[in-house]
Structures are given as structure tokens and as C-alpha cells.
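Let's practice the habit of predicting before peeking. Look at the sequence and jot down your guess about where helices and strands might fall. Then scroll down.
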Amino acid sequence: TLQAGYGYWVKGEVGTNFESGQTTKGLIQPLMREGWNLMASCEDVNREDIDMSVINEIQSQGGKTLYSGAWEAYSNLDMLVSGYGYWVDGNQGVSWRAKQGPMVPPTLADTTLSVIEDVVAGTIIGTITITNQGDDAISAITLSGVGSEKFSINSTGNIIVNSNATLDYETTQTYNLTAIATNGAGNSNSIKVTITVTNAIDNVPVLETPTNTIVAEDISVGSTVVTMTTNGANSDENSVDSYAIVGGNTNNIFTISNTGVISIVNPLDYETLTNYTLQVQATNGAGNSEIVNVEITVTDIVDIPVGFNYQTINNDGEAVETTFGNYTIKLLTNYEEANDLQLNHVGVVVNLNGNNAPLLSIQSSYIGHQIAVGIYDNNGELVGV
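Done guessing? Here is the structure:
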């Protein structure tokens, strides 16, 4: 029998009556489901009545007072919630009805997710943060805001890319949405869901054609000649993974780095080739760019022919040179002539800027050999050959 003044653990649907004085035999079938024990009264192990005078206070969920140390002051609760045990007091036949108690809705937290623009439809891109499910299972979660139609969300918080959605990094890089969850207690707090779209390379590079580049033939190996640039309309078209010279690189004079720097790897020679038209192509994740032509013009420099390292001598074995105006004229050859004091000599006249310089005499043994004329300024710099 349920006795007034004792607490019992009971379970039943909303609206079930638990009457004091009701026999447990009559409650076994409807109320003993799922292991609930109706026989556990508030007694000690010896089944002696508990002395309530030594109990200062008993509380239920939420801090509501069930007992305050005096039989006359039991509770300030306004309803009984199914699934909880309570201390109750009343006369034989008094009913205590289990009513629906206050329930807690879900609690969500702001969430930030990221998705690549070429994501496959139906992909779960992430889950919103649910900090508390509440007292009842979440039945639905809704997304709202500009672009929310591109996504769906299930009751577990998974955000899915819809089948008809098109994500384009070049158009929209961020979706600022709002999420609200619902359970039997009502709606959760409103949270911010930020979805960031990352770029997928889906456009080939667009290269800018550089202006004609002019370099001197004595430029050092390793020197930079020109740096390629892009002029695309979006980030994809300005994204390059690598560059290549696909044509026009006669004698493999040039190379290009993955950052677009064209440099010298073999010496230039004006007398061999004065103009190069390099065909350059860039590549990114979307493929190859169109080929652009890079024009490089080689200019001549004043230089003594290779090997002409010996100054000619006269019949007295002296090096032959003369001063004319602001210049010094030297006669050079590619072999070393013996100083044998020849009797005959050869006269050489150099015409400089339309004027004949003084006659230079060299040994007659130079007949049949090539001679280079070197013109030097007052600083000793070679200015003409």
C-alpha cells in the first residue's frame, strides 16, 4: 500500500493518478514497467521509519524545497514531473497527479565551417555545435539567411550541400547564416553559422605579354632577363603553379623558374644570334595557359676577338701603338711574333672617325695574318674594334 508521508519512485504517463492508500498490488502492472520499483519507501535497512526531525531539508531538481524540517512545511512545488520521486503527505484517498513539468530546450553555439567551391552535392561539410540537447530529443534544426537554400541541416546538426547548389568562390566567399534547433520544450537560442567557401582552381592562367627586352651580349650567366606576370580577371587566372619555355630557346640560352623568372644559363653572343622569341606557357590546377611570345634583343658590345691577346711589334721588337686625339690605338694579333729584328716592315694606317691616324709600322712577318685594331679612351676602356 502507498502510505502517506513516504516517498516513492514512480513512473507513468502524464495524467496518471497515484493515490495514497492504493495497494501496490493494483499498481504492479501499470507502474512497474521498465524496472521502476514501487516498493522502495523511505525506510532504513531495518525497515524502521526514518526520523524526519533530523532532516533539515530535501530538495528536488531546480532547487524547489520538498521538505523543510517540519511536517507542516513540505513543498513549494506546483507540479509533479513523471520519472522523479517525491516526499508527499496526505490523507487516505488523496491523489497526486503526474503532470508535464517544465522542459529545457536545446542550446547551440556559434559555428564556423569551411567548404571548397567544387564540393560534391550531398557532402556533409560539418556539424553545428550543440552544447545541450535539452530534456527532449531535437526534432528539427533550421537554417536561414542569404544563401541558406544552398544547404540543408538534419536534426543531428549535420550541414549538407544541396543537390542544386552552386558554390562559386569568385562570386561568394562567405555565407552568414542563422540556426535554430527545436525539441519538445521549444526553440533553442539563435546562433551564427559562418560557412567559408575556399577556392578551387577552375580557370587556367592568363599571362601578360611583356614588352621587348634588350640585353647586352656580355650579360652574366645567372642574371635575370625578364619576369613573367599575369593579368587575369580573377584569382584563378592569376594563380600559377609552374612556367615553361616551350619554344624559341635556341642553344638553350634561357631558363624559367616556377615563379616566372627568365634568366641566362649560357653566354649570349651577338655575332651568333641577335634576337630570341621565347614561347612561354604557365600551368595551374585547371590546365595550361595560352602561349605568349617573349621578345629578347641582344645588343653588341665592343670586344676584342677571342684569342687576340698579343700586341704587334715593330722591327725593333717594341709594342706598336699610337695616340690620336683622345684615343690610344693598339694593333693586336692572335699569336706571339718572334722578336728577330727584321729589316722589312709593313705600314698600317687606321682611319678613326674619318681621319687617318699616324702610320704604324709592324714587322713584315705579320703579312698573311689577321690584326685587330683596338681603340681605347683616356681611361683605358675599350671603345672600338
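How did you do? Residues 47 and 254 are 101 Å apart (CA to CA).
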